[in-house]
Amino acid sequence: MSRIGGAAVSDHLAVVRRRRGTPEAVEKPPPLPDAARFAWGAFVDLSAARQVNMALQPIGYGDIVAYQHATRRTLTGWDADQIRALDDLYLKTVAEAEKRKRPHQK
Fold this sequence. Notes:
There is one protein chain. The protein is mainly alpha-helical. The chain has one domain. Helix content is 57%, strand content 4%. It is built from 4 helices and 2 strands; from the N terminus they run ββαααα. It has helices at residues 9-20, 37-48, 61-71, 77-101; strands spanning 3-4, 7-8. Strands 1-2 form a two-stranded antiparallel ribbon. The chain is globular.
């Protein structure tokens, strides 16, 4: 079972699901490589705490810096890049799911 920070990946996904629903693409995630677990855990934490105005707001570098300060965890540049890439994919997936729900709107 994949674990991040002591909790199962499925537990992290459950938090995201409860907060805003989950796109189909993350319902059954593939196993995480060991090298990606730390960045994935940070992404899940940041995503669960993101600002939501009229739409989901992207995770910015300021959010990542604040996360490091609040959690006392040090992220590398690679981790930050992975978090941003995961966030881009997540936002695109959510947008596509929203379009499928409303086929008559542009």
